[in-house]
Amino acid sequence: MKVIGLTGGIASGKSTVSRMIIRRNIPLIDTDLLARQIVEPGKPAYKRVVKHFTREILNEDGTIDRVKLGDMIFSNENKRKILNKCTHPFIRTEVFKLVIWNWIKGEKMVVIDVPLLIETRLHKFMNLVLVVYCSDQIQINRLINRENFSESIARQRINSQLPLKEKVKYADYVIDNSGDIKTTEEQVEKILNITKPSSLNWLLSWWGPPILAISLAIKGLLFIVDFF
């Protein structure tokens, strides 16, 4: 099974590309979704986040106020690193389970959508890396229009991540999402057709994903030991 890492930047259009991949019946592991699930009340990651950021970040119903937490971490790199260390090991564990499950099902390929794929060095475990790209100005304009941010806040959110022009250096394929949806979809279709493994290649690489998954699990455990 071929494991493909998909990444990009905030407002680059990565979610749009993810939906295009899902519509083609290719399994996609959404780490943003996993990040929400692992911090539901009562779960281990939730308890660690609350421990380090206090109950100040909670809504009245006990759930984490993602807007308040986001404002806190995007303006403070140290707090952002603390949050990542609280959550990333648990996200990796879920990715581990989903990769194994898709491998057992006999899927030929699976895409893992990871916003911080390069920053966390997880790109090293992927067979291929796809980066969704657009210019800084397009990112800013999209954030202003989508989230009603001021330009300074939009720039702050973008600057909290590795610049897209740096991420493309790690890419096997770049999806330029600066234009219209049709152009982006054509690029996605072409790349998936090129990268989809044949039945023979799938058989030859059948036991690769477990190695990937075990590596992810070990990396997650080391994070926990190092931090806690």
Automatic annotation (TrEMBL):
<dbReference type="InterPro" id="IPR001977">
    <property type="entry name" value="Depp_CoAkinase"/>
</dbReference>
<keyword id="KW-0067">ATP-binding</keyword>
<keyword id="KW-0547">Nucleotide-binding</keyword>
<feature type="transmembrane region" description="Helical">
    <location>
        <begin position="206"/>
        <end position="225"/>
    </location>
</feature>
<keyword id="KW-1133">Transmembrane helix</keyword>
<protein>
    <recommendedName>
        <fullName>Dephospho-CoA kinase</fullName>
    </recommendedName>
</protein>
<dbReference type="GO" id="GO:0005737">
    <property type="term" value="C:cytoplasm"/>
</dbReference>
<dbReference type="GO" id="GO:0005524">
    <property type="term" value="F:ATP binding"/>
</dbReference>
<comment type="similarity">
    <text>Belongs to the CoaE family.</text>
</comment>
<dbReference type="GO" id="GO:0015937">
    <property type="term" value="P:coenzyme A biosynthetic process"/>
</dbReference>
<dbReference type="InterPro" id="IPR027417">
    <property type="entry name" value="P-loop_NTPase"/>
</dbReference>
<dbReference type="GO" id="GO:0004140">
    <property type="term" value="F:dephospho-CoA kinase activity"/>
</dbReference>
<dbReference type="Pfam" id="PF01121">
    <property type="entry name" value="CoaE"/>
</dbReference>
<keyword id="KW-0812">Transmembrane</keyword>
<keyword id="KW-0472">Membrane</keyword>
